[in-house]
Amino acid sequence: MAKKKLLYVQTSGVNTPQRLYSPFILAQTALAMDV
After folding, report:
1. Nearest 5°: phi and psi at 11?
2. N or C: which end of the chain has fewer CB within 10 A?
3. What total number of domains does the chain contain?
4. Residues 6+ positions from 19 with CB-CB distance below 8 Å
């Protein structure tokens, strides 16, 4: 199977630390779904 790449662009920063984990969760979900 060919490797696929996804790019997550995050527009929040240190002012909203509660959202900083989201790219990691999205990447793990995509990996689990074999996207």
Report:
1. -105, 5
2. N
3. 1
4. 10, 12
Supply the pTM of this predicted model: 0.55
Distance CA 17, CA 30 (A): 22
Among candidate residues 34, 4, 8, the one with its CA nearest the CA of residue 23? 8
Q: How far apart are the first and last CA of the chain?
A: 11
Domain carrying residue 3: 1-34
Cβ burial of 1 (10 Å; 0-12, 13-18, 19+) is exposed
DSSP the chain: -------------TT-GGGTTHHHHHHHHHHHTT-
